[in-house]
Design goal:
By secondary structure, the chain is an alpha/beta fold. Helix content is 35%, strand content 17%. Strand 5, helix 5 and strand 6 form a beta-alpha-beta unit. It is globular and about 55 Å long. The relative contact order is 0.17. The chain binds pyridoxal-5'-phosphate (PLP).
Length: 383
């Protein structure tokens, strides 16, 4: 059997990870400033993470959601405390798309409405409801086009309100910081107005913190730079440091009912051990404050690099915009300098999403290599 060929692949075969480094089978060492799509929060193969998962697997890897699972309760308690969202209830699932799918369903169960407002350049995953509010028609199958969706730009308060006023909008979904769209940050004031409009028109506000959450922005959640209290918050990526786990934080105004949501694998024992290990490490190593401090250092350093047209970001969620496509630059950094960086849906924007325990020396190393690369690569023509 062959693999279904859906991913354009770099010819690199990683076999080992340690902290913010990846090693391939030929002994090459790569600085990982991308964390496999913003997934690696506490670093590759962190000893506490490895130990927790190993011990859990030796005891019990999985049992279903038909029996009580104390690890789920421990995870919810620790998550509530560290994120300062103790009043929310937690539903555990397996991925970001699944978290958003459940969030959208829950919103529709709650107010019985069907239309969703989302934002241009946004990404929310590839399951049916999630992909229908994702701004990329190429990944929508005809079956997904039956959803009622409306896309807006950030700050388009008047048109959003005109739409909400009609009374049929079930939910507004927005990323804490747009990731794949190229690190676009909604202003706190915009989020606050959005919250008040959602309240006014009985619309559910869903904050997708799948990429921007878990300390990446320098706060536990990116929206915490504003004063809002979302109705639903979705999480995944950094939550399991590579172990597949996702979650939906649900405001207490939603009443649970047996059978309303469900999953076979979500919240299994091994996944919970991964989720607890991540929270333990974030707390013990003070990684959220570290993300903010290192992020500020990183942003300041980047602003001194000639050839970048715009640097934007918060904490360790950073976007570098150039006036040319970054494809060759990323390739040079990868193959010549052995540094992983990320792309985005904007061909001119590079994403930098390192593990949260990255140090200044890694930032300085990247800055030096980026400056060299910008001198060496042939000047691409602007698009
Ligand atoms: C903001 C956001 N939401 C949802 C998703 C989907 O997550 P997953 O790939 O785990 O389904 C992603 C993935 O990149 C994302 O960045």
């Amino acid at each position: 059997m062959k693999l279904f060929d859906v991913y354009p692949l770099f010819d690199i075969h990683p076999v080992k990870g340690e902290g913010c480094y990846i090693f391939d089978g030929q002994g090459n060492k790569y600085l990982d400033l991308y964390g496999g799509h913003a997934v690696i929060s506490v670093g590759h193969s962190h000893p506490h993470f490895v130990k927790k998962l190993t011990i859990q697997l030796q005891h019990l890897g999985f049992y279903s959601n038909s029996l009580k699972n104390d690890l789920q309760i421990e995870l919810a308690k620790k998550l509530g405390k560290l994120s300062n969202c103790e009043e929310y209830n937690l539903f555990l699932c397996n991925s970001g798309a699944e978290a958003n799918e459940n969030a959208l369903k829950l919103a529709s169960f709650q107010n019985k409405k069907t239309k969703i407002i989302a934002f241009k350049k946004g990404f929310h995953g590839r399951t049916s409801a999630a992909v229908s509010v994702t701004d990329n028609v190429k990944i929508q199958a005809p079956i997904n086009k039956t959803f009622e969706t409306e896309l807006h730009n950030f700050n388009e308060i008047e048109t959003i309100e005109a739409s909400l006023k009609k009374g049929n909008v079930c939910a507004v979904i927005i990323e804490g910081i747009q990731g794949i769209g190229g690190v676009e940050i909604p202003k706190p004031k915009f989020l606050e107005v959005l919250e008040s409009l959602c309240k006014k028109y009985n619309t559910i506000l869903i904050l997708d913190e799948i990429q921007s959450g878990y300390g990446r922005s320098g706060e536990f959640f990116a929206f915490q730079k504003s004063t809002i209290t979302p109705d639903i918050i979705t999480i995944a990526k950094g939550m399991g440091n590579g172990f597949p786990i996702g979650g939906v934080l649900i405001h207490p105004k939603f009443k649970a009912k047996y059978g309303l949501l469900g999953t076979t694998f979500g919240g299994n024992h091994l996944a919970c051990a991964a989720g607890i290990a991540v929270l333990d490490i974030l707390k013990k190593e003070n990684l959220i404050a570290h993300s903010k401090e290192l992020g500020n250092y990183f942003l300041e350093k980047l602003k001194t690099v000639e050839g970048i047209s715009e640097v934007r970001g918060s904490g360790l969620m950073i976007g570098l915009e150039f006036d040319f496509p970054i494809k060759e630059l990323r390739k040079h950094l990868l193959f010549e300098e052995k540094i992983f960086t990320g792309s985005s849906s904007n061909p001119n924007v590079m994403r930098v999403l390192p593990p949260l325990n990255i140090q200044k020396e890694h930032v300085d190393f990247f800055i030096r290599k980026l400056e060299t690369a910008l001198k060496l690569i042939p000047t691409p023509s602007p698009i």
